[in-house]
Design goal:
Elements: H1 12-32, H2 39-51, E1 56-60, H3 63-74, E2 81-85, H4 91-98, E3 102-106, H5 116-119, E4 127-131, H6 142-151, E5 157-159, E6 167-168, E7 179-183, E8 197-201, H7 204-213, H8 235-245, H9 248-266, E9 272-273, E10 281-282, E11 288-292, H10 295-304, H11 333-339, E12 342-345, H12 353-368
Parallel strand pairs: 2-3, 2-4, 5-7
Antiparallel strand pairs: 1-8, 6-10, 7-8, 9-11, 11-12
Helix pairs in contact: 1-8, 2-8, 3-4, 3-7, 9-12
The structure holds pyridoxal-5'-phosphate.
Length: 369
């Protein structure tokens, strides 16, 4: 029987594919003397814009700042709220707070995504922008969200930090919206070897504004047109990302294959719901999330079998200590229910069929006893 422990995430099989290329790139950059912004960053921005089918890509320091800087660049009414998803990583909300705006949250649907039905309960008069999240690797229903937002002229920023390479109805994030933001945190589907992020957009004015905002409000050295900040990408990270981008589709395909194996082997368990892929959606499985009865007991059982799992996320944003008092009005019963019932299984390129078999057998064993 398979004995080794299975980590929740292991980057090594991916690293082996491009290790030589990363070595060469770091050597070149060390000796170039050019470490922040510059040609390597411009090359990555060009390639990622092309990959995401957007006109512009503006690299920044991380995914959180990608959100907060985009909000700042849109110059929104400070008295109104910005809506994001209750079922998300805290950064989706924190980006709003850090840009000096008020957060409001909507619940998720059974696919764990931004619930478009919940939008109907919201008074658009109070809303200055909306930030749907493409969670776990799957895009939210942008057609519905755009229909709602466009009828009130509310700009949309798509938090795509978990959805590099995803599409829905043949459209990628940022299609007919203000912008889409990405994180290149090392464990994302496309990850740097440190912190990095970016914004993609078809809006030239927004792109130029963001380029200045990330660099002290300046495009010409020492000329500062407005109050910017420092959120720039390193040449090293850009060069690494340009290399890794070439393999993104291949690795996303590997994730989908693992998801298909899980689906096949877990389908017969009646106490367990498989992740739903929406019609027309290309899911890139940043996470493989199941919903189960007795989640905590299952997680403990799997730990004892040497299988690491995580919960995304155990405490909904509005129930976290950080947001509890200011978001006490939020009603998100589905998000709250999922927080006690969902479990993320390991999914990383390089996992073997033997590992997946062992994980599925262990889950079957748990539900039989
Ligand atoms: C990772 C993540 C972010 C933040 O990215 P950082 O680069 O860690 O700042 C934002 N939103 C979501 C949904 C994420 O998963």
């Amino acid at each position: 029987m398979f004995k080794t422990t299975i980590p929740f995430y292991n980057i090594q099989p991916q690293n082996e594919v491009y290790a030589n290329e990363l070595d060469q790139a770091s050597y070149q950059i060390i000796h170039s003397g050019n470490y922040i912004l510059g040609p390597y960053v411009e090359e990555f921005e060009e390639k990622f814009a092309q990959y995401t089918q957007r006109k512009h890509c503006i690299s920044v320091g991380n995914g959180l700042e990608a959100i907060s800087l985009t909000i700042r660049a849109l110059d929104l009414d400070p008295k109104k709220n910005i809506i994001t998803a209750a079922n998300s990583f805290i950064a989706s909300a924190l980006g709003i707070t850090l840009a000096g705006k008020n957060v409001d949250l909507v619940d998720c649907n059974p696919s764990y995504l931004f619930d478009t039905n919940d939008l109907k309960k919201i008074n658009p008069e109070n809303i200055s922008a909306i930030i749907p999240v493409h969670l776990y690797g799957q895009m939210a229903d942008m057609t519905q969200i755009r229909n709602w937002a466009e009828s009130y002229s509310i700009p949309i920023i798509e938090d795509s930090a978990q959805a590099h390479g995803a599409s829905r109805d043949d459209q990628t994030a940022g299609y007919k919206t203000a912008a889409a933001t990405y994180s290149f945190y090392p464990t994302k589907n496309l990850g740097a070897l440190g912190d990095a992020g970016c914004i993609v957009t078809d809006n030239e004015y927004l792109a130029n504004h963001l380029k200045m905002l990330r660099n002290y409000g300046s495009i010409v050295k020492y000329e500062h047109d407005f109050l910017g900040t420092n959120s720039r990408m390193d040449a090293l990270q850009a060069a690494f990302l340009t290399i890794k981008l070439k393999y993104l589709d291949e690795f996303n395909q590997a994730r989908r294959k693992i998801a298909a194996l899980y689906n096949e082997r877990l389908a017969s368990i009646s106490n367990l719901s498989l992740p739903q892929v929406e019609i027309g959606s290309t899911h890139v499985f940043h996470q493989y999330v199941i919903e189960v009865n007795h989640r905590n007991e299952l997680q403990k059982f799997l730990t004892e079998k040497g299988i690491a799992t995580l919960i995304h996320y155990p405490i909904p944003i509005h129930q976290s200590k950080a947001y509890k008092s200011q978001l006490s009005h939020v009603r998100a019963p589905r998000t709250e229910k999922f927080a006690s019932r969902i479990l993320s299984l390991p999914i990383w390129p390089g996992m073997t069929e033997e590992m997946i078999e062992y994980i599925c057998q262990s889950i079957q064993k748990f539900f039989k006893t």
